[in-house]
Amino acid sequence: MSGVAQGGQPSFAQIASGGSVNWSTGDAATTATVSSQAAISVNMNSGYRRSDRNRNFIWIDANDYRNTFGTTSLGPVQGKTLINAGSYSNIQAGTTITGGYMSNSGTYGYFILSRNTTNNDNDRINAATSNAYTIQSADVPLANRNFAYFDKTSFDASGAKIGTELSNGGSVTFPANTQVNNVDLVDFGGTEYYEVQFNQAFSGTLAVGTGTVEFTFVQPPYAQPGETVFSFIATPGERSTLDLSELKELTNTPLGGRGTYPNGPDVLALNVYKVGGVAANANIILRWGEAQA
């Protein structure tokens, strides 16, 4: 019951409780614009071992890592960008952290890298060096993705949550009926931001720090919630037919109720909308059969 119903889930997890199906004519929408998260940088001390040239790893001070991220797990830095800091230049551009190890105590730790270190003379570190490297998060523009990173203050102020719809007043474009599918609060080295997933991908590029997304808040003029059992796109000006006879049987309940299943009969609601363009007239013909005792 915590996600947006898009089919593929068991029926018992998507049942609309009695009285919860809203039939509205639609109120005037209000919108809120949310800013993308700016790049976050965390400095990291080098380890106490020499960093050899042309290797796919570097030594890291595990004490500094544990103090910064509060764990020995590499989950917080997996896939993040690693760059040089200070006078060191042994990290190639575009290098990310792909793995490694951090001890539970002491200073032993290392990162496995996506690219080998270079042959620069200053890449040999014979003792721990303060702030030798920088790890970056939320630092890559997102193009045509179904998720985004948002500034925590901006997102909290918007009031957006799971099920909130997206509109096209920001710097990227969303298909019709796009909603928030999941919201995760991420802590990266003491800085919190949101990773928000959508049920459809946007078009365009969401810039780091300056990109915006617009959320819309309205009582929708269609049925919700419930279980989405089918969805398809009809071609304009042509006839489209969908046979649901083998999909699902609509039934009553052994003990009748005043609401929807399980406190009453099954309800089939058809939500029809245009994905773009101006309004157009259309005809919908429904045919069904009933079991005879």
Task: Describe this entry's structure for a reader.
- The protein is mainly beta and 293 residues long.
- The protein has three domains: 1-24 and 220-293, no CATH class; 28-38 and 140-217, no CATH class; 46-131, no CATH class.
- Helix content is 5%, strand content 24%.
- It contains two helices and 14 strands; from the N terminus they run E-E-E-H-E-E-E-E-E-E-H-E-E-E-E-E.
- The protein has helices spanning 62-69, 152-158; strands at 30-35, 40-44, 57-59, 81-84, 97-102, 109-113, 133-137, 142-143, 147-151, 165-167, 180-188, 191-198, 205-206, 212-217.
- It has a three-stranded antiparallel sheet with strand order 1-14-10. Strands 2-7-4 form a three-stranded antiparallel sheet, covered by helices on one side. Strands 3-6-5 form a three-stranded antiparallel sheet, with helices on one face.
- Strand 5 (97-102) and strand 6 (109-113) form a beta hairpin.
**Total strand segments:** 14
- Element pattern in H and E: EEEHEEEEEEHEEEEE
**Count of domain modules:** 3
Low-confidence stretches: 5-14
Distance between the termini: 36 Å
What structural category characterises the helix and strand content?
mainly beta
Q: What strand line-up does the widest sheet have?
A: 1-14-10
